User: What shape does this take?
Amino acid sequence: MGRAWERLVRSIKTTLKATPNARAPIEVLYMVLLEAENIVNSRPLTHVSVDTNDPVALTPNHFLLESASEQPPPGRFDHADFCTRKQ
Assistant: This one.
């Protein structure tokens, strides 16, 4: 019944499952949750137009940060920092 919010919960769960192990330091978990929060809060709430002259689509970040947060998610990572399920 709650397809939209269930999909958001699944996005957070998928992000948490991608962490290297169950005993990750609190800083790693904090950074993963911050990135997941940024991903969830940058989803559009209104129609996304293909016309560049139209205003930017409204997102939850507009209410939280008073901007669309065009910057990348927190943290800078190298190729070696990416988690894989093969570890």
